[in-house]
Amino acid sequence: MTWFLVIGGIGVVLLLVSLVGGDLLDGIDLGGDLFSGAALAGFLGAFGFAGALAAGASDSTGVGIVVGLVSGVVVGALVGYATARLRRGGDEATVRSADLPGQPGTVISAIPEGGLGEVSVVVAGHITKLNARAATALPSGTPVTVSAVLSPTSVMVQPRA
């Protein structure tokens, strides 16, 4: 049972080194994100501590090894999957002026007739605040659609039907 606790302790130490040292363990390519340093640490920790619990409860090292292996594989796979999902992250597309026409938005600062107001437009998950002109006066909160780009920071909008 002592060996199981030592293996579990090694897993915890590897996890701490991975957290404190950043990508220290992830620099070793073990086959992608599924086999990252965090996944290895999760496997070792779960194997050691679950194996120690099972071996202590059953007085059988064989049962401890089987329970430890199953627990380690499950936890390691879950950690590897979570690591892979986190690394993929979100859409990091840059918002370009060409993407703005046709996008829905909301007036956040009233647009006077012949003057500038402000609109909020969400493009590719990015909230963008822009100066705006409209053919008619539009109060705050009016849903609009971007009809044209006037400059990198200014657009022409029209009320949504």
TrEMBL record:
Keyword Membrane found: yes
Protein name as catalogued: NfeD-like C-terminal domain-containing protein
TM spans (from-to): 6-25, 37-57, 63-84
InterPro entries xrefs: NA-bd_OB-fold
Organism taxonomic ancestry: Bacteria, Bacillati, Actinomycetota, Actinomycetes, Micrococcales
UniProt keyword terms in alphabetical order: Membrane, Transmembrane, Transmembrane helix
